[in-house]
Design brief:
The complex is a heteropentamer, with 4 copies of chain A and 1 copy of chain B. By secondary structure, chain A is of the alpha/beta class. Chain A is built from 15 helices and 5 strands. Chain B is built from 20 helices and 7 strands. Chain B has a 5-stranded parallel β-sheet with strand order 2-3-4-1-5. Chain B has a two-stranded parallel ribbon with strand order 6-7. The chains are: A alpha/beta, B alpha/beta. Chains in contact: A-B, A-E, B-C, C-D, D-E.
Chain lengths: 319, 407, 319, 319, 319
């Protein structure tokens, strides 16, 4: 994947998040790193920065001193604890006496799990440093936040993204037209990883990349299913809307919260009265909460679809 | 005689096994191949619902052909070592006295991941090297755990015998026991058995043993096994009962697992509740019920389950006018079917997600959302890029096919 | 223990579950028993029936031919593959060549353990017969169901329970008042064993058994008092409802979550529109959950009553 | 510890729970004791009664015939079983042929553990009698309840507690002011042990014990201050009410949930229409839950004060 | 860490909490220490005082006689018990016959664990003294409270904090501008440890420390920017207010809950009618809870801004 091919290897190669990179460089110089929280929107270089930091600290064989865990892949804090224990038990050889542990999507951990994590962090603080990666630092519990140096990653400026894409396109011999470039940047939404993925997908058609190609491949990759499901429900066909939902959950393997997020963005684009948008947004908020509390994602989401059916009916009645 | 009738009237030869003529034919053909050397598929996987005569057929076959039947089932340990000990040698040679050997792995659904670690893999190994015929029996052969195993087996399905066949069998038993049975009584038993011959015989014994006469009245009271009529009745009472307590009592008195009951209600609601406003209200109740299911699980406090039941029954009942568009039959929860059908696919998706995650430093969930959709487009557009990426991610053939939409 | 003292010893002594008893008697007559599932709610005589059957089959020394495995015994897959198999394998001496194995709460066995059971049942069927006792037969796997004759035990008619309790009370010289008897039956909830236990506990105070004594010894509030409190709140008298609540908590020594359970049971008996009953259950459920989460009991229970007051107001408005 | 120092040694010294004490004395006289359940709120003399009973039964060396176990303390029922086995195996020497085993917090045992306990009780019934101590008898399973004589302990009358505290204070030379005494009794909440503990803690400061000292040592606000804050808000002075709140939070170092608890108690003493009490209590319930979930204390409590302001306004308007 | 570097070593070096320090000095003089509870907000010198006490008592090698445990850290009370057992078994050599055990975050222990701790304290009272450190003494169970001398630590006066920070800055050669100093103190919120940490983090950027730097390193918005956003909204310019919000969220990468907290503090400084402050504070409370539950930050905060717009309009109308 081009996202990986063009991922910076060392802090010196990172051109964005300047201030953050400078602070990280000072850690490398001091051969010492505190526990860190890297927070910010997706595709702004959080994981990259963590990997670069490790690279610069330990040199080329850095993987030996590094462990990556993804909180949403691991089931339960026990796995995390055990893994960390094994990993952190042995000291790092070399002039840096600790290892680095990257915990991605840390904001997906329950607060109980985070409490346990905090204890683990403390226990192994001499032999391991943690870098927690999160979209919202607000979901990290206070005791962990106060033990970590905070780093806030921000959206990359559009010119940077544009330069990056142009560079990759040239390097890969992609014929990239101006309107194609614009479309890629727009659809990327400030997320560099997504933007590069779109470029690569568009390039894979073998045709010169213009806006039309870009929209077409993104359209294929983002099946209109969610929108279609919503419209089916608005038209009053609950059973088919439910079938579509089931397909998204089971066939595409999407998480309930991801589907809900997509529904949320689509609502604003729907052609329904403003009043109903507001109502539906409220119900989405409630559903969001229930997905966390409930046990069956499909039931929670189809209850939302039933609300769409109701809305559709009232709209047709001129409500 | 103290023998249960299922044993007493157990078929001695294959021809006595009722129904399933095609399957029996297939088994015989396969076993005959062995006399001409090792056939292409060294194992037979017989599958079908409980009580249709799968094990009995194999035992009768061994008896018919004077083969030594060596069998292992769920009441035995079946770890890799146990399988090795049991089948390792015997799958290679015949018996001392020249009798042919037939190896039976029965009830392979019962091989568990924890207590029988490595068991399935070892069975596959044994099959691949087998020099004697091996038969496997399962209820559900499409369980993803058997996907590798299946490739090395010839599949034979045992179907439920017809009601007429079962009645015939029951009549025969009655006459041998000296019982004068009304045909209607036997019909009830056969109907209730739903193709499960064993349970039909059990029922017959429970009802008729020690009598010389079996009437329709004698059978009417017998407890039902967990069958559809029960749940239909409960559903009807929940959806259409006049009072909340009626709906609630339907669930409490029913012999139905609440989780399954929720699935039934959820499946059937849109076919009965047609008014959009009421539909939304009823679905809201199910969502609320589910919240309490989640809370009970999370807190391990099962007293919260009472709200789960309340909302799925009384809550549903109170939320609509009970004016149905007419007579609508109840449907089996299709979510359950879709889930089990798509299980393999979902596991594949997750495995792909994990492999992508390892390379791209993201979680499997994120990969499913952010990378796989693009990958699918690339795989369909560009064979060259496809090969490169497949190699780089370490995807196997099935995964590539899956992503290319060829499967 | 009166439950033991007054437990029928033989099938002839059993007065309930008539049809089942008749079938069991015919097994005794034939000296043959199939594998059985006894399913039904607690306290409806399932275990008693199994023991009586054994007694009638083997005579007074029946314990030798019998094995009982209770829920509190370990019954994992390993026990089934070892202990059960060993027991089932050896022959009984006497004119009945098989033993009886009673598996209590069989529906709580893991499905792995149940899988391991199915062949044992069949292979050793000459030497052992199984009686599986369960609340829900639906949780017994189908292959086992298919091997067993199902017997469904139903709640005893209230008159039977009443007669039984009156008989025991008389026999034991207990002064049992009518309201005490009613309370005992209500609390027993159709479970005979439980009902007798409550009688014995209430009797042990040495005082004549009236409703007050009964509720007090089992640590429950008199449902009348609970209902009164609810109605007071629904009628808008918040302060008095709260006083009643405090009284219940102190007088009966109840825990907040227990009183909540009783409030829950009373809802369906209230004389308010059905739709509102469900709403009130929602309020109760939320409060119950909050208490479980560790919320302040007094605060949450007052808030519950406050919500009742508001609900009452809306009901009167015809909402 | 003063709670120990001033604990009655024999039943004759016990002045409360008269009816219970009389029943226990009759056991002593008969040299026989059934299994018992002592149920009731904390600090009402349950353990004391059990110890006094043992003392009166066996005389001064009673400890040899007595064993105290804490059910929730010892890891699981196995410990109970083993300990009981060893303890109960040998007969008591003397004219009382059984030993006494006190099981504290018996209602905290899981119902499985209680089932096992039941069997243990049965097995050793000749050589040991159990006294189960519980806050809520409703959480003891019926089979145990029906084997035990039930005793219900109730809160001590306030005058008794007051006398007791005054007696101890005098005996220990504590200067106890009237408002201090009131505060101690109020905070003790009818729990004598707790009340004595508060007295001892307050006394340990070495200063004369007034209300301020008492509230400060237990980490609570003076109710006067809380009421003042509430009235300030009701009078419409939001800014000053909030300043008072911050003072309580920061100066006294109180937890938000504790202040909330105190606000809750004060609401009922406020002179505002009942309709508003209902509303405010509902909001307090919501606030309590939000704080428990980890909301920002200051934000949530100021929002609550804002409601008070609003209430005050409407009340002045005649609402 | 500067917090360690500048931590007082002996009681004489402690300049705050005068009364407490004096009481502790008297313990040193008497060579005897009771069990203590040090309660108070974070960063007010509780741990420092405990360490200084030990230092003054045992002299430079004091670590041998001292053990620090974090109550919420160690898994359960068993660890505490075992550790204490080992540690307390041997007597201290020298003229002080006991060791000191500091138990941090004691108020985070469950009450069961505290009960067990109480027993441990009793058992080893001759060879060990416990100093329990807690934020809220009200969460320590009474039986422990009554065994301990209570000490209440209060927030340090702002001038003390200011002096301390200036001293450290000078010592470390940090260029600290006046607005930077103010920002540091404001953000520290009276917690000295936190305040020093902020100084060190801000200094690590290598630039002169002004307000901008300070807010940026702790991930907070400059209050100026927040106020501007609020006023823009009050002036009726929703679109621009929302743009400013997006800027804060996306460009500066701030967490929604942090922005909300800042809005909350700023509301009280706004020049709008009190009535409106009250309304807005209520909505902030609701928003806070929703954010905590994981709602979409931008959506929730723009809804809040919409309320500001409404407020502004009514104010201009003379509302």
């Amino acid at each position: 994947m081009w996202t990986e091919k063009y991922r910076p290897r060392s802090l010196d190669e990172m051109v964005d998040q300047e201030e953050i990179v400078n602070r990280l460089k000072s850690f490398v110089k001091a051969r010492n790193v505190p526990h860190c929280i890297f927070a910010g929107p997706p595709g702004t270089g959080k994981t990259t920065a963590a990997l670069c930091l490790a690279h610069d600290l330990y040199g080329p064989g850095y993987q030996e001193h590094l462990m990556e865990l993804n909180a949403s892949d691991e089931r339960g804090i026990n796995v995390v604890r055990e893994t960390v224990k094994t990993f952190a038990r042995t000291r790092s050889i070399g002039d840096v006496p600790f290892k680095i542990l990257i915990l991605d999507e840390a904001d997906n951990m329950t607060s109980d799990a985070q409490q346990a994590l905090r204890r683990t962090m403390e226990r192994y603080t001499e032999t391991a440093r943690f870098i927690l990666i999160a979209n919202y630092s607000g979901r990290i519990i206070e005791p962990i936040q106060s033990r970590c140096a905070p780093f806030r990653f921000t959206y990359l400026p559009e010119e940077h993204i544009r330069k990056r894409i142009e560079y990759i396109a040239e390097n890969e011999g992609v014929v990239l037209l101006e309107d194609g470039l614009k479309a890629i940047i727009e659809l990327g939404g400030g997320d560099l990883r997504r933007t590069i993925n779109i470029l690569q997908t568009a390039a894979s058609t073998g045709k010169p990349v213009d806006a039309e190609t870009v929209y077409s491949v993104v359209g294929k990759a983002n099946p209109k299913d969610v929108r279609e499901m919503m419209i089916t429900a608005l038209n009053g066909d609950f059973i088919n809307a439910r079938n579509k939902l089931r397909e998204l959950l089971l066939k595409y393997g999407l998480a309930g919260s991801d589907i809900l997020g997509q529904i949320h963005s689509e609502v604003f684009r729907l052609n329904i009265p403003e009043r109903w948008k507001v109502k539906i947004i409220e119900i989405i908020g409630e559903t969001d909460y229930r997905l966390l509390q409930g046990s069956n994602e499909e039931i929670q989401l189809s209850a939302l679809l039933a609300k769409f059916v109701e809305a559709g009916e009232e709209i047709r009645k001129g409500g | 005689m103290h023998l249960p009738w299922t044993l007493k009237y157990k078929p001695k030869t294959l021809s006595e096994v009722i129904g399933n003529e095609k399957a029996k034919e297939k088994i015989l053909q396969w076993i005959k191949e062995w006399s001409r050397g090792v056939p292409e598929k060294r194992a037979l996987l017989i599958y079908g619902p409980p009580g249709v005569g799968k094990t009995v057929a194999v035992e009768a076959l061994a008896n018919d052909l004077n083969m030594e039947l060596v069998q292992s089932n769920a009441s035995d340990y079946r770890t890799a070592e146990a399988i090795q000990r049991f089948a390792g040698r015997s799958s290679q040679y015949g018996t001392l006295f020249g009798r042919k050997r037939l190896i039976l792995f029965d009830e392979i659904d019962g091989i568990t991941g924890s207590a029988d670690r490595g068991g399935l893999r070892e069975i596959t190994k044994v099959i691949r090297r087998a020099r004697t015929p091996i038969i496997l029996i399962a209820n559900d052969p499409y369980d993803p755990r058997f996907s590798t195993l299946r490739k090395f087996c010839e599949l034979v399905e045992f179907k439920k015998p017809t009601m007429t066949q079962i009645i015939k069998l029951l009549t025969r038993i009655c006459s041998l026991e000296g019982i004068r049975a009304e045909r209607d009584a036997l019909k009830v038993i056969a109907e209730r058995a739903e193709g499960d011959v064993r349970s039909a015989i059990n029922d017959l014994q429970a009802l008729a043993q020690g009598k010389d006469k079996l009437t329709f009245e004698d059978v009417a009271w017998l407890g039902r096994r967990d069958r559809k009529e029960v749940i239909f009745n409960v559903l009807r009472r929940i959806l259409y009962s006049r009072s909340l307590t009626g709906a609630l009592r339907a669930a409490n008195e029913a012999d139905v697992d609440p989780d399954m009951l929720l699935e039934w209600i959820y499946e059937n609601i849109p076919y009965h509740v047609k008014n959009p406003k009421e539909l939304a209200a009823v679905m809201e109740m199910l969502a609320l019920a589910d919240v309490y299911r989640g809370r009970a699980t999370a807190s391990q406090d099962w007293s919260l389950m009472r709200y789960y039941i309340d909302f799925m029954t009384a809550g549903v009942s109170a939320s609509w006018s009970k004016k149905s568009p007419g007579w609508t039959p109840f449907k089996f929860p299709s979510r359950i079917m879709t889930m089990s059908k798509s299980k393999e696919e979902r596991e594949m998706l997750r495995e792909i997600g994990l492999r992508i995650g390892r390379r791209c430093h993201i979680s499997a969930d994120k990969a499913a959302k952010d990378v796989i959709p693009f990958l699918k487009v690339i795989f369909q557009n560009n064979p060259e890029m496809k090969d490169g990426l497949a190699r780089w991610f370490g995807l196997n053939e099935d995964m590539v096919k899956f992503l290319s939409g060829e499967k």
